[in-house]
Structures are given as C-alpha cells and as structure tokens.
TrEMBL record:
Pfam families membership: Dala_Dala_lig_C, Dala_Dala_lig_N
Name of the protein this chain belongs to: D-alanine--D-alanine ligase
Domain ATP-grasp: 117-324
A GO molecular-function descriptor: D-alanine-D-alanine ligase activity
Source lineage: Bacteria, Pseudomonadati, Bacteroidota, Cytophagia, Cytophagales
Gene from which this protein is expressed: ddl
Function: Cell wall formation.
Keywords assigned: ATP-binding, Cell shape, Cell wall biogenesis/degradation, Cytoplasm, Ligase, Nucleotide-binding, Peptidoglycan synthesis
Main location: cytoplasm
Catalytic reaction annotation: 2 D-alanine + ATP = D-alanyl-D-alanine + ADP + phosphate + H(+)
Length: 327
C-alpha cells in the first residue's frame, strides 16, 4: 500500500517563491509508484491544499488532515521543502512533533539553532580542522555598535541577517562609510545581525544526507561568481554564477572537507539532507565554515540535485531515501 506524503511548501518569508519552485520539482520527481503525494501550502493563517480544479481545502490543524468531498485524508509523513519560516526555523518541526507526524528534515531544536548563524558557529567552533571568521553578533542597531565594529573587526566585512536565507539583506562592506547603510538593510530583515570579517578563499557548497541508515557526503560544488559574493541574484539568476560540480579540490582537501562536514552534521544532530557552505582560504587552504542550510533548494538546477547526479544517483531515488529514513 502506498504511503501518503504531504509535500509542504509556501512560507512566511521572501523565500516562499523559491520554496514553491522546489516543491514543483519534488512533486513531479517523487516516486509515484511508492507514494501518494498531496501538496500543502502554508501561509500566515492560511494552511490549505489546492486541487487541480482550483478548489481550496483548509488543513485541520488538530491532526494536519484534510477533508475533501466528505473524505478525511491523513498522512504517514511530511516531505518538508518550506524554506525560511516556519519550515526551516523549527516552528513547523515542533508542531509535527506534538501531533506525532514524522518529517524529512531536522528536528525542532536543530532547526532553531541552525537558523541562527551566530549560534550555529558557537556550536561547531571546536570541531577539529574547522575555522570560523571573526565576527560580532548584534541585537540592536545603535551608533555605539558602529564604533565597536570599527574597533574590533577589519575590513572588508560581510553584514547579514542572522536568521535569514537566500542572502536576502546581505551586504559586503569595503569602506567604513558603507557600514551604516548595510546595517540598516540587514536589520530590516531580522532583529539579529551578524557582522563578519571577509575570508579570501574559494567558495564551495556541499550536500550531506542520511539515507539507508548512513551519512553520505556528496561531491562539493565550487561557486565562481561574477558578483562580489554569492547573493540572491547570483544564486537564482542563470549565468551570473558558474557552478562546478565536483569542485576543484585535491585528494587531501576532499578527504578533510568530508571529515569536517560529517562532524558538523553529527554535532548539530542533523536529519535528512543539509547543505553546508564553506571557504577554503586562498593562502592556507583552511576550511572556513560559512553556514548550514537545513532545507536546501530542490529546483532543477539546485546544488544538491547537481551533486546527487554527480554520484550517478537518480534524484527520485534520493527523495525515496529521505522519505524512508523518516520511518
């Protein structure tokens, strides 16, 4: 008998657009011989399923069920592809935990911690061979904060919302005059902001997932951007960025990166598929941790999809492994 899977998408942030694109790919790729898939759209105060005929059916939040034409539909599990809040920050995971419904992504605590870039770095800081750029975490915007940044950090700097994604609200500051505007831009997206020293290095993004009871590290993708950094435009507009999969690393670097990201996955108690962004510093080759994404994109050109194909695996089979790992 086929398992009934709710494909959860939408969201409360600007990342909902990307979430819908990811969901469209998952919906058409997932193994329909094994699973009945129902897409659930989650927006503030509006959780629903939309039929092909355009009929809208609300979700019963008591048990995350639907009633369509008198028939009640419940689910065996959830394929979570909702980027940002509430799908990536732990809120949705906490709800599913309370009603006893399994899901493909990290649990409530891991999701909440990893959504906060500053807290994540504090947790992984003692992993051998992992380095972290010097930074300051801000909880308010005030003139004295600017003075503190100038006293403690060196230019250039990255200014980013601490809980954001898709590089929304992020800026690179090369002269001090640019700092106040960059802080205003970041605080417009979040109540916490991370100010971080720039690391000169080659940028990579690597997928790690648990399937069939074991952790698999995928081939890393090297990011070569024509932009100053890997921002929203570089991530989602074709032609702005060159993505090389597998990325250009020697055997020692591949082995070392594999060791580090496996420990990051384990230390943060991750579940399902995650994507870890990092630099290899130009002069030293040191691994500098940037951030972890616990609901990575699943569009046709997404990095995880590229990396899955690079090991000769069908994306459909990858989704099956994620789903079966829930049960």
């Amino acid at each position: 008998m086929k398992k009934k899977i709710a494909l959860v998408t939408g969201g409360y942030t600007g990342e909902s657009v990307i979430s819908l694109k990811s969901a469209a790919v998952v919906e058409k790729t997932i193994d329909r011989q094994r699973y009945d898939v129902t897409k659930i759209l989650i927006y503030p105060g509006d959780w629903h399923h939309l039929t092909e005929d355009g009929e809208k059916y609300p979700v019963d939040l008591n048990d995350f069920s639907l009633t369509i034409k008198g028939e009640k539909i419940t689910f065996d599990g959830v394929f979570n592809i909702l980027h940002g809040s509430p799908g990536e920050d732990g809120k949705l995971a906490g709800y599913f935990d309370m009603i006893g419904l399994p899901y493909t992504t990290c649990d409530q605590l891991t999701s909440a911690i990893t959504m906060n870039k500053g807290y994540t770095k504090a947790v992984v800081d003692d992993i051998p061979e992992l380095y972290i750029a010097k930074s300051i975490q801000l909880f308010e915007f005030a003139k004295e904060q600017v003075d503190r940044i100038k006293a403690e950090l060196k230019l250039p700097l990255f200014i980013k919302p601490n809980n954001g994604g898709s590089s929304i609200g992020m800026s690179k500051v090369k002269i001090w005059d640019e700092l106040p505007e960059a802080l205003v831009k970041a605080f417009a997206e979040d109540k916490q902001v991370l100010v971080e020293e720039f690391v000169s290095g080659r940028e990579f993004s690597i997928g790690v997932f648990r399937g069939k009871g074991k952790i698999t590290v995928l081939p890393a993708t090297e990011i070569v951007s024509s932009k100053e950094f890997f921002d929203f435009e570089a991530k989602y507009i074709p032609g702005v960025t060159e993505e090389i999969t597998p990325g250009r690393m020697n055997e020692e670097e591949v082995a070392r990166v594999g060791r580090v990201v496996t420990q990051v996955y384990e230390k943060l108690n991750c579940k399902g598929a995650v994507r870890i962004d990092y630099f290899l510093e130009k002069e030293t080759g040191k691994f500098y941790f940037i951030e972890i994404n616990t609901v990575p994109g699943q569009t046709e050109t997404s990095l995880i999809s590229q990396q899955i194909r690079a090991i000769g695996k069908e994306v459909k089979d990858f989704y099956t492994e994620l789903i079966e790992e829930m049960f």
